[in-house]
Design a protein that fits this description.
The complex is a heterodimer of chains A (499) and B (122). Chain A folds into 3 domains: 3-223, Rossmann fold, CATH 3.40.50.300; 241-364, no CATH class; 369-498, no CATH class. Chain A is an alpha/beta fold and 499 residues long. Chain A contains 14 helices and 18 strands. Chain A starts with a strand and ends with a helix. Chain B has a single domain (4-121), classed as Dynein light chain 2a, cytoplasmic (Beta-Lactamase), CATH 3.30.450. The longest helix of chain B has 22 residues, at 46-67. Chain B has a 5-stranded antiparallel sheet, with helices on both faces. Chain B starts with a helix and ends in a 6-residue tail after the last helix. The mean pLDDT of chain B is 90. The chains are: A alpha/beta (499), B alpha+beta (122). The interface between A and B is medium-sized, with 31 and 26 residues.
Chain lengths: 499, 122
Amino acid sequence: MATIDDNRGVLVVRIVYDGPALSGKTTSLSALSRGVSSTLRSHEEKDGRTLFFDWVEYVGGLFEGRQIRCQIVSVPGQRELLHRRKLLLSSADAVVCVLDTREHEWEFGRSWLRQALDECRAREPAVGVVLQANKRDAADAVPREALRESLLGLPPVAMVESNAVAGDGIREAFVLAVRLALDRVRALAASGRLSVGRPAEDAPDELLAKLLAEEGERTDLNGSFAASAGAAIQAELAHWIPQRASSRPPASPSGEEETVFVPDPMMPGGMIWPPVDGRVLLHEVASCEIRPERTSRADWWGAESGFRFHSARASIFQDPHAARTELIEWARLHAANASHISQGRAVILADAGQGRLRLWQIVRAEATLRERLSMLLGLPEPGVLARELVAVAGQLARSREAFKAATASLPCTLWTLGASELNRATFVGLMPPLRSLSATPELEGAALVAREFTPHLRELRRVRVDYGEVRAHVAELAKAAARDAPAVWLDELFAQIHA
Amino acid sequence: MPTEKQLNEVLEKIQNDTNGFIAASLVDLDSGMTLAVRAARPDFDLTAASAYNSELVKQKLKIMKTLGLSGTIEDMLISLTDQIHLVKLLPGNTFLYLAVDKKLSNLAIVRTSVNRHLNGMT
């Protein structure tokens, strides 16, 4: 949708307000229109419900010398009008998902958000989503921490709390959405795909005509979300390719003088990777009030509220160009290994004071195999425990094999492997430093299982009176398995520990 | 970040403390969009002023980069024949924009008034 309208010298972007019926979309647009002194235009309402869309137009802000003309559009939330919602979402440059956060509505809202995220992330470049957590004034509103926890399984989304009736949080959510839209515009411009000319729909009547025409044709909209996000990453990277070769930056002579990093979702575009999801993640992190600290090795480290931050001692740059080059290399590393690593990651360049920049990686914490193993040790049934131990050992070994295809040397341990999908090898740890990639060969197979499982089997022997039964079950599984299989390795390990 | 209501209350306090107050806004530097606005004169186009002042700040940052200046901008003052415009940079990539009538105020009053209420904006 984003279009440069050269005749009027403006950039036109569309911000779509999505959400179930009666979640507060129209109320939000109404509050926003009052705040920006514009007019809310609704096309057909029935019992307070939007049948087509609401429309607010606002000209404000500047993008590279052009005024930003925002078409702010809400979708109809009723299930039977899903086709109209999909069509409007497909034209969005950013989406504000307005959800009712009262207890009895939240689960439904969460599933709605998941669907919106799936559709928006399939666009190319991805469309950023802001969650406007509405009705926070209600007595039975889900607590903020519980909201955040329930979002952990979803792709990155920025959350702004709101009370649409009072107008609280409305403008903040809108401005954040405009920022995400501009990040998308930059990605489109970098890949030469930013439209120039008259916008496809320049007024509410034209949008209505398009909706009616599409309904007449009964277009199958499902296919419109099938594009891959991979090309967007490449386009963004192409935009970042430096004009001269990089040089290894010197380490800061005095780390103590650095400005302590504070996550800032409003930091300039081009300093965050990935551009849209990274900003969303940063917005989420910013609300956690995490403050990283220096470690004894002079790295910076922070871990709290479900996130981990890290910046190596040497990741500080006096030269902005060198900093950006490093960011590009990190982005390339992440993009090349996307199929092996967990989502919920960002790499950013943050102000370190005195004109310096420091490179940080932020990773959303996920359940690890180590946590799964700890939980398994409490299983009451020895036979079930034996099977689960073999399954975890198998996952460990398979992950090591899978990571051989990665371009990064991903450490394969119980702490760095995700437990949410046992059939998929997912690295959930911090990405190793760029220049440590030619590290010594990793252990694999029996040796890897022995290194990772030995302390746990010793603990098992110490705490379980039925240790012998667990061992016997593993031995049975080993007999039934192939010669070089996880059950056999575990059986041998049990024998070594017993000896 | 404070709510829009809280931000508007801070702008109101700045208005009450500043003789000759014309308009003020809290502006997102990246997009030039306003996060909160307050105007005493209805003819003052605060939306456009905020947006173009975001360009002004960005250009100044470019100039500093070109000159190799490592400091940061604290504030920017534009003195017109009849008005004073103050741009005060704030954490979170935002800035406060304030316009006052030069005949009824002076730079010291403007700065004092803004600094007194800065905590409420971050």
